[in-house]
Amino acid sequence: MKSGVCYKLCIVVMFWIILSPYAGFAEQQRVDAAGEHLKIPPLLESIRFDSDIRFCGIRIPVEDQDVKELLEKELLLALWDRPQVILWMKRSAKYFPHIETIIQQYGLPADLKYIPLIESGLRPHVNSSKNAVGYWQFLESTGKRHGLRIDHMVDERRNIFDSTHAACKYLTQLNKRFESYLLALCAYNMGQSALSREMKAQDASDFFSLYLPQQTQQYIFKAIAVKMILEHPQDYGFDFEPEDFYPVFSFDKVNLTSDFQLPITLLGKAAGVPFKTIKEYNPQLRGYYTAQGNLSVFIPKGTARGFKEKFAVEYEKWVKTDSRRIHIVRQGESLIGISKIYRMSLSSLLELNKLSSKGMIHPGDKLWIK
């Protein structure tokens, strides 16, 4: 009997510990650097909507009880995970200036900048259960359709600039089709065909009148909730100092051309930074080698001076110490035929040149041979 009482008491204590920071019955306080008390508003106060709420210029009718409930839910869930909100704020400072600039170039609403935040938390390597990848969570087919390079060497879904341009093209197309940014975002989440079927079946063309999959409804209202928090963080108990934010992503850009796939370490040596830094600045680069052909890479700000000269030196060292030879592809040659000429296995030839089994070669291409 005593053990049962102790168990129940432990459960009560655990719930009290978990819930107490957010209890609506008492206002928490913390002290800032100046010694002043700053209040974290009770959750109930956070979901009392007094002002006009808009997203992409569209008024959100919170007087509709169903709409209010959906927005309250997403707002409460976001505020419950306060560490996540802090990370959203910090990462937004790093990437929003670049995203906003691109969105403006396409004449799209600035509120669309919140979409990669709810899609990926502004992290390049996020991969969903449906194999959507990158900041804007593109499927491979959708990404390629909007100009992104996606192969075994490069995945531009992980590049903040390339993926944002692709997303803007896609959202422009979706808004033209559905004549509403909220519906465009629904289509971005659930697919154009699926949304069109629902609109036809329900004979409705207004987002707030449509009965849509729960995931899509949550998607829209989460974006609205995130906008509300990030535009007025102090209203929700987040008091940031300028030094709290991550610095804006800044870089130098260098352009190279090579007939070969180059070790990424060469770029690092030329810039005077580790391999890790090049990978972090260029999350679109997969593996340990660059793709052949024209290449644009980001390097830390201030390291471009003398980069090409240093790269030329490192490149010559690499060529001299590398035991590989060069074969120039002639008309009619195949990978299998070339491997037999040099008594190599096909798998070795593919691995040496970072090619897939479906890789294509053309006259004039240069291959490494060992």
Number of domains: 3
| CATH topology annotation of the largest domain | Lysozyme
According to DSSP, the number of beta strands is 8
- Strand content bin: 5-15%
Low-confidence stretches: 15-36
**Main beta-sheet annotation:** 2 strands, antiparallel
Ends: how far apart?
77 Å
Strand order of the largest sheet: 1-2
Average per-residue pLDDT, rounded, comes to: 88
CATH level 1 class label of the largest domain? Mainly Alpha
Radius of gyration: 26 Å
Given the structure, what is the number of helices? 15
Which H/E pattern describes the elements? HEEHEEHHHHHHHHEHHEHEHHE
Fraction of residues in helix: 40-55%
The geometry reads as: elongated
- Corresponding CATH architecture of the largest domain: Orthogonal Bundle
Structural classification: mainly alpha
How are the elements arranged and paired?
Elements: H1 2-19, E1 28-31, E2 37-40, H2 43-46, E3 54-55, E4 58-59, H3 65-80, H4 82-105, H5 115-120, H6 140-145, H7 160-178, H8 181-190, H9 192-202, H10 214-231, E5 251-258, H11 264-271, H12 275-281, E6 293-300, H13 307-321, E7 325-328, H14 335-341, H15 346-352, E8 366-369
Antiparallel strand pairs: 1-2, 3-4, 5-6, 7-8
Helix pairs in contact: 3-10, 4-7, 7-8, 8-9, 8-10, 11-12, 11-13, 14-15
